[in-house]
Amino acid sequence: AMITEKSAALYARAVEVMPGGNSRTAVYSSPYPVYVRSGSGARVTDVDGVERIDFLNNSTTLIHGHAHPEMVEAIAAAVGHGTSFGMPTPVEVEYAEALSARNETFEHVRFTSSGTEAVMMAVQAARAYTERPKIAKIAGAYHGAYDAVAVNNDGSGNLISHAVTGNPEGVVANTVVIPFNDPEGSLEVLRRHADDLACVLIDPVPWRIGLLPASKEWLDALREFCDASGAVLISDEVGSYRVGYHGAMQLLGAEADITVMGKVIAAGMPIGAVAGRRRFMSVFDPSKGKPALPHSGSYNANPVSMSSGIASLRLLTPQAHERIGQLGEQARGSMRTALGEAGLDWEVNGLGSLFRVVANSAPAGYDSAAAAMKALYWKLLENGIHIGDSGLGCISTPMGEEEIAEYAVAFAKSLGQVLAEGRA
Ligand SMILES: *Cc1c(COP(=O)(O)O)cnc(C)c1O
């Protein structure tokens, strides 16, 4: 059995001072989470001294793995010069230039300290630009904690604007939901609200509803609707930017008005970015009098995050994207083979360096597909691999063939153990 004594002891202390011992829902696992001591490259070591290959990389954020020497150097150098100021710094200009150069639609860029905030600012920018109240989002998709987008975000995908508990009725009424990859179904909803819609907010590779890429047909339908109605097309690529050098939309043959990024664009320091066509981004411009949308934040464009971002983008060459994309394809292939040989109808989805095992059915001995997925998560941990307990994983640039081969062996072994224990 797995040794997790020190994690259990830490969790016992944590429950005394934090609700459920937790400060981030996504990292909780029952009966308690495994606490990490350190990470290096593709690997993490937990507090009991057990080393594993990390395929979760902080919810896909750490595209260069842990403590990458060039990242550490850039961040440490920035910290040594002061961590934040009530003045702009040269690195924010350099970083904005680097990000803007990646996609022709990233004409103007604005920084926040998290993806949640960046989504919030993009939605508010669309409202300020259009002077309309409503937003449309994909049923089931996750866009962070902002209340306007924390509607129907549980992955279920049913077409009702249901709230997280406590979300006011007015907020819920102003968020309408559209079915992913269904052009007719989406247009039917959008047309009904066309005069009131500030934006259509999508994630082109939405992980919570299965990590399938958006179809060209659906993206074209949304683009056409937005052009005709004046709604702003916002692409939340906080998670999915990593699928290609130019981001997810360009890879899928589409164009957003505003793109929201985060996670890998700084790969370890707090970050969010709103990037888009000048006409939309002009709502933030304070140089011509009070802007339509004033936007401040004590840590916006702080030099530590900016320096981390510059280092991350420097390492994220087109070749790096290509290489981790190929490793992602290999990883997906090995999982599909193992599932096929086990006679299980689960899917493995994803694009580029992102993957997700989608548990469709409960094997013998399990109450639900999710319970079997959780069992697989714990078996993988026992066998030296860390992925998300929802089946989410990704490739980082320090990984190579060796890590993918180890992963394939551990996945097949863990799956076999899960099924055998269910039958026993
Ligand atoms: C992670 C994520 C967010 C939230 O970003 P944070 O930096 O965690 O606040 C928003 N949207 C998507 C698609 C994400 O994957």
From TrEMBL:
Ligase found in the keyword field: no
Family annotation (Pfam families): Aminotran_3
Record's signal peptide: none
Modification sites for N6-(pyridoxal phosphate)lysine (covalent): K263
Keyword set includes DNA repair: no
InterPro entries documented for this protein: Aminotrans_3, PyrdxlP-dep_Trfase, PyrdxlP-dep_Trfase_major, PyrdxlP-dep_Trfase_small
Keywords assigned by UniProt, alphabetized: Pyridoxal phosphate
Cofactor(s) needed by this chain: pyridoxal 5'-phosphate
A single GO molecular function term of this UniProt record: pyridoxal phosphate binding
Residues the record lists as binding pyridoxal 5'-phosphate: G115, T116, S298
Domain of life where this protein originates: Bacteria
Family: Belongs to the class-III pyridoxal-phosphate-dependent aminotransferase family.
Name by which UniProt lists this protein: ForI-DCS
Protein source organism: Streptomyces kaniharaensis
